[in-house]
Amino acid sequence: YFGQPEVTAERFVDPFLPELAEVWSGKWYKSGDCGRLVGEPPILEVRGRMDSTVKIRGFKVGIPLVEGAIQDVQGVGLCAVVPVYESPAVVDGLLCYIRPDDGLDFEVVLNNVRLQAVQKIPRWMMPSYFRPMAEDC
Fold first, then answer.
1. Quick one: 74 exposed, middle or buried, by C-beta within 10 A (0-12, 13-18, 19+)?
2. pTM above 0.90, yes or no
3. Backbone phi, then psi, for 12, in 5-degree steps?
4. Which of 53, 60, 125, 133 is in Cβ range 3.0-4.6 Å of 121 for a Cys bridge?
């Protein structure tokens, strides 16, 4: 990071495991991705994020932010947003499970979500898929 030596030192680190030095002996960048070493010689396999951020078509999407926007819509009793994977490393979109408040119809609440949540988050952050949440969740 230009002109920010503290941030540079925090983000670019020496290998913190002996096995990592076998893969790359130079500085490692702390990206927030999660991975593991597999095989012999060891190869780094990226497994996803350590936080709840996913990348969809090049955009970083914070799942808690999406859940918060949907949860704030009147009639939503409970919601959960999960990534939908096109392949093990590529997120195609988001799936949102919704449990309407007691007595409300799922389709009515879903329509409210589609109209109101986009006022809080960009359209590209909106889930592509919606399903009713099971009653026992």
1. exposed
2. no
3. -105, 110
4. 125
